[in-house]
Amino acid sequence: MSGSILIVDDEKGQRDILSAILSKKGYRITSVPSGEEALQELERAEYDLLLTDLKMQGISGMELMERVLADNPAQCVVMMTAHGTIDSAVEAMKKGAFDYLEKPLEREDLILTVQRAFERIMLLKENRVLHKKLAETKTLPNMIGEHPKMMEVARIIHKIAPTSTTVLIYGESGTGKELVARAIHDGSPRKDRAFFAINCAAIPDALIESELFGHEKGSFTGAGSREIGIFEAAEGGTVFLDEIGEMNVSMQAKLLRAIQEKEIRRVGGKVNIPVDVRIISATNKDLEQETKRGQFREDLFYRLNVIRITLPPLRERGNDIVTLANFFLKKYSQASGISVKGIGKPALKILLDYSWPGNVRQLESVIERGVLMAESDYIQPEDLPAEVHHDASLAGSLPFDFPAEGISIDNLERDLITKAMQRADWVIAKAAPLLGMSYKTLQYRLEKFGIGRPE
């Protein structure tokens, strides 16, 4: 048995006997003659067990124990009391001593009590280690799935959430980047402050600066009053910048300055306003490639990319597809009041074989539709939309036969864009990822084809 014991007793003979007996049993022993010296020793080093006499000159054993436990409630203490002071021993145990020994000490009694104390110390240590491990592997409250790649994401989040470092989240559209950002915020000391999410692709270039930093009255046409921006509103909290790769280069320079100087200037303003926000950004672009092409500032990339989290696409998450599908099934059958018990095996096979270009977001909408369309207690293949039956990326070919009379690429593109815009409720930022395009490219194509929302 090994472990460290600090013996506190003002009788030298007693200290020597205790040291001799316990050293023989393999314990590492340090002994001091007073409570004052015991406190000094505990400042200097940690001891598994504190074995102290009750009655001593100066600081008594009881006072020593109270002061030690106030500092370290996990400290294990065994009190030694003279025969006839049992009341004090009982009081010591009420105040947190593990056990007491009656003087004169019996050798066997001493060894047994110390052994029991060390069993408890080991249990507490194991318990703390397990709790730490559990905290690291604990899945996040708003993220579902147990694929190793997702467990790794959860581990990183638990490690970095309490810090204030900037984080860059990589992942295809629909993989849950905002959920990760929220999980980081919720696990941080900023959790009671504001969390603001902004999609850089959804805001026109002319307005993004005022959206982030605010503006003064009259700073541009239509600025009828002073408005504070997201950075000021999120003071002490977290700002999540989604699709950061779509931010124009001049705005990137202003963002870099705000991060470096920890201050912003409203549009049209003269004063610098100090801000304290944590920046989490996300992208589905390869920002390293973008920096090489001059589309993204290298210095800003290094500022944002202190910690990188890569979210796997749904097609790489194996059985998580089933777990998520069942979660969404419960959610939407409760929300709609339609009792659907599960997903039929043939339908499940289709879900597992599909490549999910829209990731978790697409799976959610497929299951929502399945619940609404289901004719029986179980979702069947006919309740799933055509898109998941014909997986073009898996077939390696068109999801339809090539027409004999040929095809107009322009007409096909116009139809695809119109369909994507309808699916996305005419929100460009939502339709762009469905077509694998950037916000700007889709905006340009909509103008080129004259596609507009039907009145």
Automatic annotation (TrEMBL):
CDD domains: AAA (cd00009). The keyword ATP-binding applies. The modification 4-aspartylphosphate is found at D53. Keywords: ATP-binding, Nucleotide-binding, Phosphoprotein, Transcription, Transcription regulation. PROSITE patterns: RESPONSE_REGULATORY, SIGMA54_INTERACT_1, SIGMA54_INTERACT_2, SIGMA54_INTERACT_4. Residues 143-372 form the Sigma-54 factor interaction domain. Residues 4-118 form the Response regulatory domain. It comes from the Bacteria. Pfam families: AAA_lid_14, HTH_8, Response_reg, Sigma54_activat. The keyword Nucleotide-binding applies. This is Sigma-54 dependent transcriptional regulator.
